[in-house]
Amino acid sequence: MSRTGLWDSHAHLDSDYFTDDREELIAKLQEDLDGIVNPGCDGPTSAFAVELAEKYDFIYAAVGWHPEELKGIPADYLEQLAAWAVHPKVVAIGEIGLDYYWKENEPKEVQQRIFLEQIDLAKQFDLPIIIHDRDAHGDMLELFQKEVKGVQAVFHCFSGSLEMAKELAKRGYYFGFGGTSTYKNNQKTREVMQYVPKELLLFETDSPYLSPVPFRGKRNNPGYVEYTARHAAELLGMDFAELAALTAANTKRLFKKIK
Ligand SMILES: [Zn+2]
Question: Which pLDDT belongs to residue 100?
Fold first, then answer.
């Protein structure tokens, strides 16, 4: 086991922010964390995620097209995903979802179509999905209440309401919590974390973004998942090691190809 026993269930180590020190950072992370799941956001980043997973035992990949990356999506993108999906270290399809925040993103209908196509592919390969949901909570919840069935999912960096969390937890979906849960003005997310059944709780960083306190505004890295987890242990009144073990088990249950 690593020093903390924690998993970072969502980190973008493929990001340019890590170009200068990726190898030395990963060497250090290997001592501190049990594992990392690195989702892709398009073709090149998915390919990079798979490369990292091939190079390092404790890193696993997910592959997918993020809702901010749909302009010019290749016509054969589903074939590309299918080729990666059978790789032993590709443990999920993601990150995929809906993003209504950025005006330059593709229209809602296009985002929803590509999201649903990727979910179908995940089902075909019996893989879970990693969901990005920004300012699209209403449509997202409706999709999961009406259309999406038979796939396991984590709502990464969950930012929905307590009511939405209740609906999703009822259906057994997982919740990823990262640095934003430590922000002073984010009582809403802490309330959700306290509500979510413990067996559906995952920790993540979304590195290089969304650093936890006391690193807010600086580059995030998977090692900082420890700050989020220690903050959560205090909030939930749990022993840190116990919470680390529990969330590690949850991560491996969701991403069941993890060995
Ligand atoms: Zn992400």
Answer: 97
Whether 259 maps to a domain, the answer reads no
Give the range of the structural domain holding residue 108, as residue numbers without chain letter. 6-254
Residue 38 lies in a domain: yes
Digit-coded pLDDT (tens) for 45-61: 999 999 999 999 999 99
> Mean pLDDT over all residues of the chain?
97
Q: For residue 115, give the CATH number of its domain.
A: 3.20.20.140
Distance 210 CA to ligand 1 centre (A): 10
Q: Can you tell me the mean pLDDT for 20-43?
A: 98
State the total domains in the chain.
1
pLDDT at 171: 96
In a domain, 1, yes or no: no
Phi, psi for 147 (deg, rounded to 5): -110, -40
What is the Å distance from ligand 1's center to 132 Cα?
A: 7
Report how far ligand 1's centroid is from the alpha carbon of 39 (Å): 7
